[in-house]
Design goal:
The protein is an alpha+beta fold and about 150 residues long. The protein folds into 2 domains: about 15-70; about 75-150, PH-domain like, CATH 2.30.29. It has helices spanning about 15-35, 50-70, 130-150; strands at about 40, 45, 75, 80-85, 90-95, 95-100, 110-115, 120-125. The protein has a 3-stranded antiparallel sheet with strand order 3-4-5, with helices on one face. Strands 6-7-8 form a 3-stranded antiparallel sheet, with helices on one face. Strands 1-2 form a two-stranded antiparallel sheet. A hairpin with a 3-residue loop joins strand 3 (about 75) and strand 4 (about 80-85). The longest helix has 23 residues, at about 15-35.
Length: about 150
């Protein structure tokens, strides 16, 4: 089966990636500013350098979590699909995927596997509207074309 390069482009959330990227930058700026602007002596409280580092560090941790969310994707190839979600990255062959589900108010696409397990594909999110529907259809087409071809 011949599959175009366009059909094999990675799946990525648009709104989720934008919001996560903006929040990462805001987190670094706000917590960095707070760490710099904390008064040395504020009444009964004395802010030490370690306190400033902890505040700045909290901003970095939040930014890293947002960055991880912004890098959620699913990368198709002729051999299978690599799904990178928030915590877990999973590699699937096309033959493992039985069905693509995107209904019932679910926030993202779910893949039903041949071992009765399911895998969320957070890269295709309902928040992206019509784009999400066309991406879910593209994924279903890949599953149909490449899953049956092998």
């Amino acid at each position: 089966m011949v599959v175009s390069d366009e059909a094999l482009r990675p799946f990525r959330s648009r709104r989720g990636r934008l919001v996560a990227t903006v929040m990462a930058v805001v987190s670094l700026l706000v917590f960095g500013a707070i760490a710099v602007l904390l008064p040395t002596n504020a009444g009964l409280t004395t802010w030490q350098p370690v306190d400033r580092l902890l505040v700045a560090g909290l901003g970095v941790v939040i930014a890293l979590a947002c960055w991880r969310y912004a890098t959620i994707r699913a990368v198709p190839s002729l051999d299978g699909l690599v799904v990178r979600n928030l915590v877990v990255t999973r590699t699937l062959t096309w033959a493992q995927v039985v069905d693509v589900e995107f209904g019932g108010g679910e926030p993202w696409v779910t893949l039903e596997l041949d071992d009765t397990d399911t895998v969320a594909v957070m890269a295709i999110q309902r928040a992206d509207g019509a784009t999400a529907m066309s991406e879910a259809q593209r994924l279903a087409g890949l599953v149909r074309d490449l899953g049956e071809a092998r």
